[in-house]
Amino acid sequence: MVIPLHLNQPVDIQLEKPLFIASDAPLQQAIALMTGKEKGSPQSCLVVQEDSKTIGILTERDLVRLSLSQKSISETIVREIMTSPVITITTKDFSDIFAVYSLMRRHRIRHLPVINTDDSVSGLMTLSMLRQALHLSYFLRFREVREVMSTKVITAFPTTPLIDVAQLMACHRISCVVIVDETATSEIPVGIITERDIVQLQGLGGDLATLTTRFAMSCPVISLHPENSLTSAQEIMQRYRVRRIVAVNEHGELEGVVTETNVSQILDPLELFGMLEILQHRVQQLVKDRDRLLPSENRHLQEALDNKEFRLHYQPQFHGKSRTIVGAEVLVRWYSKNRGIVSPAEFIPLAEMTGFIVTLGEWILKDVCQQARRWQDAGYAPIKFSVNVSSHQLKNPQFSKHLEQILAESKLDPQWLTIELTESSLVENVDMTLTQFQSLKELGVDIAIDDFGTGYASLGYLQHFPFDILKIDRCFVENIHINPKNAAITSAIIQMAEQLNFSVVAEGVERQEEFEFLGDRHCEIFQGYFFSPPLSAEDFEQHLIFKSEE
After folding, report:
1. Nearest in space to 25 (alpha carbons), one of 78, 104, 82
2. How many CA atoms within 13 Å lie on the side-chain side of 149?
3. How many percent of the chain have pLDDT more than 70?
4. DSSP letter for each residue of 151-191
5. CATH architecture of residue range(s) 315-541
6. What is the pLDDT of residues 19-29, one digit of tens each?
């Protein structure tokens, strides 16, 4: 069978929206934009303009290179360190995936601005987006990490000053430095420092000359073996959202580093276009299968709701000092008559895809409000109940009115209900979300941002959205007492919340050491298995407290 090659395959990908900055802008302003302090999520590059014309690009590597000069950040403007001239591609040529791939591969660049006919930048193509768009699994499955990994790895110790690490990156034009155990006889990796880590510290005003790598390195280090397949490397990059993985032997000794660039370089352009047609055909089949199966799955979910197979569980939230219950997060569980207990990780994404999440979410709100009112009427002291709300529910302009009706029918005071939203749901439609926030605040319910620090939003969003509560994600809480990076991030979040009058809830607390560390930094509300797992309504009732007789 002969597969025709078409060199004009469209790149079916949503371009990253570019952020622009003037060439004479202070570097401090650029760093604030790149770290997400001013607006949006963190950016790996900025497009530099002068008189409305694009003259360069500012990347994380450019900022790290500044450490080689004697100038401070406050004395530097963007023009002095930007990369110029910048490699670009026209909107017309961008429709040719071969041109995009070849250009980025030839120049070994991670950012490719796409320009219109009037030479204005309309979007950014990044190496991460290209790697995901090309469906690399086929090309990587028979290749091993050792084939592409970089064996000449630059290393440093946990006690090495960060300024020295930044200079190593700039001198060797590398994106990361592996931190090794200085007490071991061989190189045992214990962490990794990337360009983004350096840029974030610069944005926070950290002194690179006095801080050591122990303060900023990512640990424990993500690693694999040289004989592992490149498919596993690709999966790890996507799962943990990293662009570099350390390769170690069976003794844990450093062998090399495999980067996103290494993985992308493995592609054979001739093989690429033959497989692209096969992949596109397979995608079309999958779309047809999805469209055929989703209505059936939606019917199964609706039947489960009608048969009362969904039940609510409650994970208590405790005040740290008094150890008294002050609230609970509401979680839904599916006890299927045919399949047994179905994991939320399975049915929640399915409910999102089919749109059933709107129906399920409304049922959850009704059941929570009714149950909370029953407990109050039974004489238990009122506490706050937190309910996760999907972005699909938030998109409904009538959401706040429906919630007002639910509260009125249950006769529950709005002050005892908290609506939890993820960061990603905030940025899908900022204007609409702000309108919903205003309506919810007028209604009297509290609003919490869930998994703070892990999504698409940034500190800049706190200036626009009227939050009441920040929930620190469990990924920052885990081993916080021995992970300096998690400790620094969490301490900063708590301190910031105090200054902005937000309440803080720490999720995923599982150890005494984590609880004590957070308590010492004035975190007051805790949730996690150290205190209690999620409980059925019957078991949760045992934690409630009767009101004192007046």
Report:
1. 78
2. 27
3. 84
4. -S--EE-TTSBHHHHHHHHHHHT-SEEEEE-TTSSS--EEE
5. Alpha-Beta Barrel (3.20)
6. 899 999 999 88
CA distance 352 to 357: 5
Cis peptide bond upstream of 10, omega within 30: no
Query: Collapsing DSSP states into helix, strand and coil, what is residue 504?
Result: strand
Taking the C-alpha atoms of residue 54 and residue 48, their distance in angstroms, rounded to an integer, is: 6
Asked if 304 contacts 334 with a C-beta cutoff of 8 angstroms, the reply is: yes
Ranges of CATH 3.10.580.10 domains, the chain: 20-133, 140-265
Tokens of 98: 């071969």
Q: What's the N-to-C CA distance of the chain in angstroms?
A: 86
- According to CATH, what is the number of the domain 20-133? 3.10.580.10
Looking at per-residue confidence, does 118 or 440 come out higher? 440
Mean per-residue pLDDT, 119-125: 87
pLDDT of residue 397: 87
Distance in angstroms (rounded) separating the CA atoms of residues 276 and 279: 5
d(CA 404, CA 441): 11
Strand order in the sheet with 155-156: 155-156, 176-180, 189-194
Indicate whether this model's pTM tops 0.70. Answer: no
* Cα–Cα distance measured from residue 258 to residue 247, given in angstroms and rounded to the nearest whole number: 7
pLDDT at 7: 35
Q: Residues 166-207: pLDDT tens digits?
A: 999 988 888 899 999 989 999 999 999 998 888 888 877 778
Please identify, in words, the CATH class of the domain defined by 140-265.
alpha beta
Name which residue leads in pLDDT, 138 or 59. Answer: 59
Beta strands in 27-117 (DSSP E): 45-50, 53-59, 89-90, 111-115
Q: Where in the chain is the domain with CATH 3.20.20.450?
A: 315-541
Question: Is 233:266 a contact under the CB 8 Å cutoff?
Answer: no
CA distances 89 to 15, 94, 281, Å, are 13, 6, 28
Q: What's the rounded Cα separation, in Å, for the pair 487 and 463? A: 24
Cβ-based neighbours of 541, under 8 Å, separated by 6 or more: 375, 380
